[in-house]
Records
---
Amino acid sequence: MTMRIVAGVDLGGTAVNYTFLDESGQFLIKELFEHPARSIDGPEVCINQIIQGLALAADHAGAQLTDVVAVGLDTPGPASANGVLSSKGSTNFVHSNWAGFDIREALEHQLDTPVVYLNDGNAAASWGHVSLFGSQSHATSISAIIGTGLGGGVITSGDVVVGRHGFGGELGHVTIPFHHIEGIDGLEPRCNCGRVGCLESLCSLTAIRKNLLPFFLKQHADHPLAKEEIGTAAKQVRGLAENGDTLCKEIFRVQAHALGLFFDEMINVFDPDALIVGGGAIETTNDFRDWFIDQIRLGMPPQRDEQKSIPIHVIPNGDTAGARGAALEAAKLVRSKEHSVRQPDQE
Ligand SMILES: [Zn+2]
C-alpha cells in the first residue's frame, strides 16, 4: 500500500523549514526541521537547497519523496498570488536573478510534482485557523503575525483571502487611527511603504527600530539602550520588556494597542469567530504573552456585547506555522483535484 502525503515548504530569508501531512491529517514532523536556504546565492542554488532539504526531511519523517503527491510552498513577499516574486526585488531575495522569478513554477518543474503557493503570512494564518477550527470548518478568522514586518491573513468560511494580485491579507499596511493610542503624542509612525500609520509602522520589529524605540529613547536618554546601535537595541526590547523594563514594556503596550485598534476594524468588517496572534514578538513567557493579549483587548475601542466575546488566540507551534499552513494548502489542492475528477464536464 502506498501512503500519499503532501509536503509543506516554508522558505525564509536564511532557512527552509519542512513538514509533511499524511492522509489522516497527521503532521509527520512535529518540531522544526530546517535546511539552509542560501537565497542570497540566487534562485538556482536556492531551489537546489529546497529539494536537497526536502529529501533530508522525508528521511527524517520516515517518508518517501515518491509518496509526495503535492507540495505547498510559502515565502516572504512581495509576490503574486501564483508565486512570481516582485520584479523590484525584496528584503529576503536580494540576488538580482530573483526579480520577477516564478518560484512556484521552478520548484514544480524540478520536482515534477504539483506545487501550490502562499505568502508566508497567509500560510501561518492558515495553520492558526486550522489548529483552532480544523480543516473542514467554515469559520472566519483574522491572523496577525508580528515579526520583522507584520504579515497575516484573513480566512473567511475556511478559505484564505488571496485577492486579485496576491495582496489579500496584507494586514501590515492597513492604516489604523493611531492617534487614539495613549502616550505617543508627537510620534509620526512612518511605514517602509512610504505611508504614515500602517499597522506595521506601530506593531513589528521594524516599528520598534524605526519609530517606537527612537521616540521613547528621546524622552529617556539615560536608558541603557540609548548607548547601543538602534538595530541591536531594537532586538533587545522584548527580552527587557519580559523582565519588567518600563520603557520596553511601554513599547509593547503601544504595539498591543495598535493591534487592538486594527482588530476592532476587522471585527466590524468580518465579525470573525476568532482573532489570532503569532510571530516572534509573542514567542515569550506565558505571563508576558497573557499580559500582551490583555493589552490588545484594552487597546480596542468599546465593543458591542456580541463582539466582546470574540476570542484572541495565540498560534501554537509558531515556528512551524508557515510549513504547516503550506502543507494544508497542498492537501486542499489534492482534494480539489479529486473533486474535479469526479465531476462530469459542464456542457
Ligand atoms: Zn505601510
---
Amino acid sequence: METDRRLSELYPGSARDLCELRFDTPFQLLVATVLSAQTTDERVNMVTPALFARYPEPADLAEAQTEELEGLIHSTGFFRAKARNLIGLGAALRDRYDSEVPKDLDELVTIPGVGRKTGNVIRSVAFDLPGLAVDTHVTRLTRLLGLTGSDDPVKIESEVCTLLRPAAWGGFGLRLILHGRRVCVARRPSCGECLLNDFCPSAFRAAPVARAATPSGPAGSRRRGPAKAGSDGPGGAGRRARLSGPEPG
Ligand code: SF4
C-alpha cells in the first residue's frame, strides 16, 4: 500500500521500534498498555519502573494491596479502575495462563482491562505477530485517507487489514498514530507538510493550511492550499508512537 510505504520512510522500524512504552517482557507491556489509557506514554514510563520492581510477576500483582497499588499508579489517572483491572489481570494470567501472556487475541480480550486495541498492541509489539491497534488517530486518519468509511474500530480493523500483508498491520497502525500526532493533527492537519498530500482525498480540505514541497513532488501538484502553514511537522517530532493519551489540540 502506497500510504504505508511512504509512512515507513518517515517512521521506519518495527512495531516494537515505534512503541514508546518502556518494557522488558510481554507482561510488563500489558501492564503499561493498560495504564496508558487516558494518559501519555511518558507519564506511564515514569511510574512503571517502581511498579515492575514491586510486582515482578502476575502473582505479585494479583495479590497486591489495592491502596498501595493505587498509590503507585495514581498519577496516570483513573487509578481506582486501573488498579482493579491490574489486580484482575494478574490473577487471570496466574490462574488461567500459567503466568504467561497469551498470544491469541480471543484470549487476550478476556483479561481484565484488555480490549482489541490493547490486545493488538501486545501481539504486534511484544510478539511481532499481526495486530492493528485502532485508536482515535487510526480511526481519523484511515477515514481521511479514504481507507474506510466506517467509524467503528472493529470494522476499520477488518477493512484496513485486507489492504496490507499481516506482517505490516502493527507497524502501520503505529505509524498512523505518529502521523496523527505530528502532522495530521485533529483540528489543524498540516497538509502542506504531509508526504501523503498528493493523493490523500482530504488534503487541504480539513483545515486552512499551506502547501509545501513534499518528497512526492513539488508543491501544489493537485490542490491549492491557503497561506499559513500548520505548526506540527515531522521535523520536530520523535519517531516513536505513543499508544494512547489525550487528543492533541
Ligand atoms: S494530506 Fe492532510 S488530511 Fe491527508 S493525511 Fe496528510 S495531513 Fe491528513
